[in-house]
Amino acid sequence: MAITVTDLFIYPVKSLRGLRLERASLDIRGLADDRRWMIIDQHQRFVTQRTLPALVTIHTHLTDDGLWLQSPDSECRVSKIFSGDPTPITAHIWSDEVQVLDEGPAVGQWLTEVLKHTSPLRLVRLSDQPRPRAKPEYLGPAHTVFADMAPLLIANQASLDALNHALVDGTEAPVPMDRFRPNIVLTGLNAFSEHRIARLRHSDFSLALAYPCERCVVTTVDQTTGQRHPQGEPFPTLTRLNPMPAYGSGAHAKPANLKAPAFAENAYLTGAERGLLMVGDRLWVDELRTLESPPNALG
């Protein structure tokens, strides 16, 4: 079955507004420039839309030499070449401790003021010490910078179409793909059949689909306004339509979670050290996954 890449996205700063691309290079850490910075609080813990949905109101823009952060009223620039204090600090992202470099007080103050945060925020980048690998039993040699778990998130347009059909049937408004903040969007698959695929083949490399992405409250945040849906949609509708399936096997088997939805697949590059992916590229199913306990939506 031929599958087409219809969209590519990166999010230079974790939880801020993303960028749509026509092409992107990728390696074992994901798409180039994706989630290379993140914001931390006074406890040096990562900050996301889960607790601060207004983050999405800050736009990001990349140039050859810098990152621009833009609010409706002001902007702030960060150099791609780090020139601040080279002493790493420890930051926390989920259960990981990561060594990061602080981009300095000016951008930290700008973020704190723009977001009207009651305590100081800081922008950081990864130091020379790599982040510990997350879930090596599923993600193999892959590691990431500041993405939650996997280097890549691959979404299926047909799955979004099925969700929106269910939302409209329930008198709710449809949602755009940006609610799920994917890196790669595909067409040519049946709805939710991405959960049955273990590997997609490109002419120059492969993409390993490691396990379904269990979704959280970020799906309820309008990625333009930063406002949450008052009834928490599309979370409950998607949970009924496509609950989180079981995945893994043996000692690493994970049971299904019928109280949370799945949407898209956590994935990583394999078969090459790096690659180039373009909108319009064709992919083929190279390997199917055996599901011990398939989700209801897959029968």
From TrEMBL:
The MOSC domain, residue ranges: 124-286
InterPro entries tied to this protein: MoCF_Sase_C, MOCOS_middle, Pyrv_Knase-like_insert_dom_sf
Protein name per Swiss-Prot or TrEMBL: MOSC domain-containing protein
Species whose genome carries this gene: Simiduia aestuariiviva
Pfam assignment, any one: MOSC_N
Coiled-coil portions: none
Annotated GO MF terms: catalytic activity; molybdenum ion binding; pyridoxal phosphate binding
